[in-house]
Design brief:
Blueprint lengths: L23 H9 L5 E2 L11 H12 L12 H15 L9 E4 L1 H13 L5 E6 L4 H8 L3 E6 L9 H10 L5 E5 L11 H12 L4 E5 L22 E6 L12 E4 L2 H15 L4 H12 L1 H27 L3 E2 L7 E5 L8 H12 L1 E2 L1 E2 L10 E5 L4 H17 L1
Parallel strand pairs: 1-11, 3-4, 3-5, 5-6, 6-7
Antiparallel strand pairs: 2-8, 7-8, 9-10, 10-13, 12-13
Helix pairs in contact: 2-9, 3-9, 4-5, 4-8, 6-7, 9-10, 10-12
Length: about 400
């Protein structure tokens, strides 16, 4: 096996040294090696891809749909996404120049931040949240500024935003993820409208990661782009709503003036997404079958959520009721203190249940656990019995 010349290591991107460790995958990997473990760790739907989506992908292959697609995605898929955004959220985007298909929402995050931030820029990130936003910001030479929302029920309020802007007046971007990974908390229509009014008074560009928008249980999802479309890039995709994580289809939608550089950054990274996956996503976003499949999954998730929240509260965990996504963010019972990493490690090793420490998700996460209910109800019930035994025996 080759060994790198030592002097070469000094020539790497120095921003790698600024990165904070992201322990989610490593924790999951280590827990997976424990015999008999029940995993409630990753945001990986346990459903299979719906038949209509599979059939569309198979037909694409059989039709020899195997050549380079346009960089921003097939016309059919961009039209399907435009339909999806208009039908679900009353948002209007031109498929020609206001939508780009990405390799998952993850690539969308990278392309968006690459296009709109410069080295030294400050990027405001409402936390606790998915740690990739801060990692990408750091790698690009910008500075992540975490906004701890835990005191406000994990919702970024206009008052809190204004306070942060007073000490960070040169911030260029606000990253907002809702429904939230890891809290499952989302925003009401009025909360989104009020926050949008506060943003409107600034020159911030909002990256609104709304990948869980189809999984809202009471009421409907309101995109911040409904109120400030001229300042917003919306990220979404098929991974969570249609159990298509492995197909890697996401998208970015926004005003064409912003989408020009975003699309250029995207094209430099991946050229285009794969044809069969885009065919499957077209069926997901444009057909009644795709819409129905999401509704069926959502009903199952809601049943799991209701059971899990009630059971955990009985065991002494404090929970802000999650109204979206498929996560519960549970505060440890007082007797366990705030060392969530120790608790989660002990629970995995002794209790045979794997969850993710809340501190991995940034400011406001310490003393919490992220528990995914993208698992069968039987597994969730079995996990609760083990957690009950662990908590009562400790």
């Amino acid at each position: 096996m080759p060994a790198v010349k030592p002097a070469i290591m000094k020539n790497l991107n120095k921003n790698f040294a600024r990165l904070k460790p992201v322990g989610i995958r490593q924790f999951d990997y280590q827990a997976s090696a424990i015999p008999g473990i029940i995993k409630l760790t990753l945001g990986e739907p346990d459903f299979n891809v719906p038949e209509a989506m599979k059939e569309a992908a198979i037909k694409s292959i059989q039709d020899n749909d195997s050549h380079y697609a346009p960089g921003n995605g097939t016309v059919a898929l961009r039209k399907a996404i435009a339909h999806f955004m208009r039908d679900r959220y009353n948002l209007t985007y031109d498929p020609a120049n206001e939508i780009a298909v990405t390799v998952g929402a993850t690539e969308g995050i990278y392309a968006s931040l690459t296009a709109i931030t410069n080295p030294g820029d400050e990027v405001l990130i409402a936390t606790p949240t998915f740690p990739l936003y801060a990692s990408v910001t750091t790698l690009l030479g910008s500075t992540p500024v975490e906004i701890d929302t835990s005191a406000d029920g994990f919702v970024l309020t206009p008052t809190r935003l204004k306070q942060v802007l007073a000490s960070h007046p040169n911030a260029k971007t606000l990253v907002l993820n809702y429904p939230s990974n890891p809290t499952g908390v989302t925003y009401t229509h009025d909360q989104v409208k009020a926050l949008a009014e506060a943003v409107k008074a600034t020159n911030l560009i909002v990256i609104a990661d709304e990948i869980y928008s189809e999984l809202v249980y009471d009421g409907r999802h309101t995109s911040i782009a409904e109120f400030i479309p001229d300042q917003t890039l919306v990220l979404n995709g098929a991974s969570k709503s249609h159990a298509m994580t492995g197909y890697r289809i996401g998208f970015i939608a926004g005003p064409k003036e912003l989408m020009g550089p975003v699309s250029a950054a995207h094209a430099m990274m991946i050229t285009a997404a794969s044809d069969p996956a885009m065919a499957a996503a077209t069926a997901a976003f444009a057909t009644d079958a795709g819409k129905a499949a999401t509704q069926q999954m959502k009903a199952a998730y809601q049943e799991r959520r209701d059971f899990l929240v009630a059971a955990l509260r009985k065991l002494g965990f404090e929970i802000t009721t999650p109204n979206g996504a498929f996560y519960v963010f549970a505060k440890l019972p007082a007797k366990f203190g705030t060392d969530d990493v120790k608790f989660a490690t002990d629970l995995a090793q002794k209790g045979k249940v794997a969850v993710i420490p809340g501190s991995y998700f940034g400011a406001g996460g310490q003393g919490h656990l992220r528990i995914s209910y993208a698992a069968s109800l039987d597994n969730i019930k079995a996990a609760i019995e083990r957690i009950k035994h662990f908590v009562e025996e400790d």
